[in-house]
Request: fold
Amino acid sequence: MCAVVTHPQSSSLLKSDLPLKLLLGLALVQMSVWTFGPAVLLHNLHQDTIEILYWSRELALGYPKHPPLAPVLVRLFMVAGSAGVFSLMVLSQIGFIIAALYCASLRSVLKTSSAQIFVFCAMIIAPMSGVFGVQINHNSLLMPFWAACLYYGFNYLEYGRWRDAIGLSIAAACGAWLKYEIAFVLIGLLGVSLLWAPYRHIWKRAASYICVGLFVLLFARHLWWLFHVDGSPVSYALETQSNESATLLNRLNNFFVGFVICILAAVIMLAILRLNRVRLQWATFKSPALISCGLSLAALVIMSLVTHQGIRQGWLIPFTPSVILAFVSVVRLDDDLIKPYWQIMIKSCMALTALICVGFAGFVIMRAQSDKPIASYSFDGAHLNQVVEEQWAATHFGTLSCLIVNDHYVAAAPLLWLYDHIRVVDFSVPYWSRPQQIAYCNRHGGVILDVLNGPKIDYAQYFPLMCHGQHQTHIGARFGKKDLWAFNVMIVPPEGQTCP
Reply:
């Protein structure tokens, strides 16, 4: 269903006079530093990523927080063991590079080759492709689908081609299967089709209505699930996001910070040109890309006000393609002025993306030396996994099938190594400690990892066969202080077995 999204049309990028070898080199540098770097540095990942790993072990039509496509993608790429972090970083970077290709190929918005290079470079060095890309979640995974909607949407508005209408339907449906936030880019495209006079012709074409019907058809199965399940993602969003971030001040602050994150890469590209004494001029503020971006951002703000929800900074990360395209559409990037600086732009971005990765690594390591390391990135999950495997191997019960935890910030880290054959019961999240999951662990046995400063759980109430002996261990920060987290490790024998 999502095949169209992962193969951008080659019409503009490959047929132009762009320095393709240099652009490929930039993509390879980006892919290399942000896959191998985190793979060497990290033995744990952000709790959002861990939760997607939970979901990917129990595939369904939807979950209490989000639609199901992100767990499917993670399951396709995840390789258990020492390559676990690397495999997830590969997924993340493939998505960002696809997004960059889609945006840079959008010649209906980008009128010059220099504008294409500017956009490709900006997308590569954007915070969402690097520092935020390590935090693999629904916001970062939505990026290629968002960019695909812009690509097919603007091409359809400009040229009225059937292939673009169909591509838009598939990209939008795939995005909706991943996160409902894709609606904001569609609102922007819909609005510009009504407000921009040259685009109104599309409403006289049958393809427009068939495009809507195809989207509904592709999304119908999840819609059916949505209306027949308790605790849907919509309920989660409306009930849990109405918190302290819903105050007007916090809304404005988070919106501003999120917008800065989106536009930062374009500003950096502009600074690179200005440092080389390139005098740029504004083109026009009557731009379809600017109107579409403004409508998408306005829709986010209106949604926040109407539903009394806060705005999280991360929610604006998928807007990055819209913001960068809007920025470029109002700046004159004529080839006769910019072409002599193509190599400088691309090579500067190569150095910058590597420098950002080194800076990220230095920050994580520096924090690891403190008393308050970043648990999501500094925790030594490999050490904890070694303890789990040694404790279970000593029982001679066979393959470990279940991990029972009271925290998903650090205790669930062994999932990266044991992904292929374990389920997780997480008592810190009600959805992941349901009766059927507890029953599964009682049948197959498992290891309990009780973080001593975590929630207090009466494990014997749920696992009556639990062995009374405990093994206490201390785990530290990778590249940092040791013995920062204390755990009790306990064994639940499989059904029909006794404690060793």
User: Anything to note?
Assistant: The beta strands are 402-405, 423-426, 446-451, 471-475, 485-492. The mean pLDDT is 89.
